[in-house]
Amino acid sequence: MLEERDIYELRREGDRAVYMDHEEKRSICIPDEYCAGMFQARKPPHLTDENRYFEAITHPLEGPTLRDIAMSKHASTAAIIISDATRNVPTAKVSEYLVDELVAGGVPEENITFFVALGVHRDATQEEMRDFIGDTLYNRGLHIENHDPYTEEKLVYLGRTSFGTPVKVNKKAQQCDVKVTVGKTELHEMAGFSGGRKSILPGVAAEETILINHRPEMIFADGTGAGNLDHNPIHLDMLETAKMFGVDFSVNFVVDQTGAPSEVFVGGLEGSHMAAVEYLRQFCNITVPKKIDLFVVTPGSPLNCDMYQGVKAIFALQHLLTPDSVVLFYGAFPEGMNSFDYVDPLRKFHTDYDAARKYTWDHYKIQMDHTLPTLDILQMGVKIVVCSDTVDKQDLLDLQMLPYENMDEALEDAIKLTGKDNPSVGFFPSSQSAVIRYGDGVE
Q: What are the φ and ψ backbone dihedral angles of 78, each rounded to 5 degrees?
């Protein structure tokens, strides 16, 4: 695995600036006078002490140990709710310790089930499941299954939150005696931060529940946004849902851009999550000292799995973009666009953004959550150039984005689109990992 500092490089070679992305195997060369710099979230330290995972699980930050929870409940069944491949959580670091603690608390190993918290994402493959829990548990036959958000018989209704969200969740997981979540805490464009309560909503919630939590009124409410939990209705609705579900024990990783753990916070649902949030806050703010004309952006792993996930990297630039901004966006995106619903309103209405917005609100589906911020950016006048040989060109054209397969051609045309003889070019790899704003005095 590459060290995070080695994935992205920016160096000067004479009168040229060369940007290298070793993960994507991309390089971009521009005149040095154009280069405004590379802007990344500060790198958290790597967690190198392998004993830390055992210590964290057996000595939680607050509350009883998992073993004591199982014993006090006389538990005979347990659910361990884990993230899917789009989240790149190092679950295998703690999975054996969690199982050992549950067994020590009296839960038969055959009654422990790992649930992959898909939300409405695609099913995890068997190979991915092996990676999630590790070879040892997988080979021992520990049960692991994908959450199903669509089949009514597999869901249970628990009531409504104060936000009016009907709480339907995975019945088998909710009815287990002990319920554990494992996730990672990172910036989230709507919920403020991922982790903690998000393992339940959207993780093991019904499609209907996710849809109402992610509805436009919530997305555009005051308080919604990356890095904010105060009065954030999406976060608070998720938290209410998780409390109704009944989480007993929670594991929250903080990782670097490669997925390597930096720290792990374990204990009660809220306390462990907030500890992870406070730790992460040290690393996730970027101040840009000068106006950028051309933003070179990529999401990096794991969000480069598809375009629907990857566009979060563009949304992270919302405080910097102006009507004359140009974005050069690139990524592997092996699964292509991977969302019909994201593209559908723009496919129907093209550049009639008001009509596309009205259609989105009137016919809202879960993966239209990314349609709305995309519309905001397009309606502002921002031009988006996409370099990818895996995303369908017509899908990109329907999104009013300009498709390219060759980076040199994409860069040349992106520079022309700025309309500047000497444009300011900034490189923003994994921009979704930061809250990015201009410094004082930058207009």
A: -145, 145
